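lol ok so funny story. i was supposed to be doing the assay writeup but got distracted and ended up predicting the structure for this chain instead. priorities right. anyway since i did it might as well share w the group, maybe its usefull for someone
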Amino acid sequence: MRKLLHITLGALIFLTAHGSPTLADLAPDDDQGTQQPYFDRLMGGAFFQQHIDVVLARVVGPLATWPDGYDTGYTLEILDDYGGGLKEHERVKMFGTRPVPNGSSFGPLRTLAADDVMLLAIAPLKAAGQFRYRELTTPMGLGCPSVVKPGWVAAVRRTLADLRRLVPKDGKGELPRADAYRLLASEEPLRWALGASLVAYDPAPGDVESLKRIVNTQEDLTLPQAVWVYYLLTSVVPEDKRPSKADSDALLVGYVGRVAKPLGE
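and the output, tada:
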């Protein structure tokens, strides 16, 4: 169901995220395998680790050679990054594996177009400046990979800055509740999605009802936003605080029934 929901989000909102990568190719680290408090639900599932970065980058072009275990790769020009460890206009190499004909390859790196600006998830390899391609869903409502159109670049950069400020990569600190609700009041879709994610991550009494009320009563709520709240209620809110699956399903169906036009109009 979660994979299907990601596909739905991809069609309606921003893009698709499939599956859960392993950590086999990450650089060795004593903390590898330790879940960071913010990330186990915020960044696409329990696989998310402090080593993975989310970058906004321009695809420079394909690479001709790859390390052992990979069969494709690209040079990227970094424009911005969540982790803050990469410099603007720095060039790095990202490697992955190609899709196989029967579709059994896990998290394949599909063909990327040169000069596209993309939001990508990457994990460091042992060699400096080399990274492994990953797939995940970010709390700003965008999946990785995602092509970012020119009109959205500034909004993505602003929201990456919010993410760096409010969700430190070391996972330390308190969840910024006041900031979360300020973002939830934003008219910018990505900031709105991040605010909703932060509210859902560790909800205080009444927060889940506030999210449900948005879907039930907010007149200008778009279908992609309603689907995002559904995703948060079913996948991000802690299990002991989640509405029942039937309750969340009914919430989304009720929204669609409220805003959909009758057939023939």
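Confidence is low (pLDDT under 50) at residues 1-41, 44-48. Strands lie at 53-62, 72-81, 91-96, 117-124, 130-134, 136-137, 143-144, 146-147.
back to the writeup now i swear
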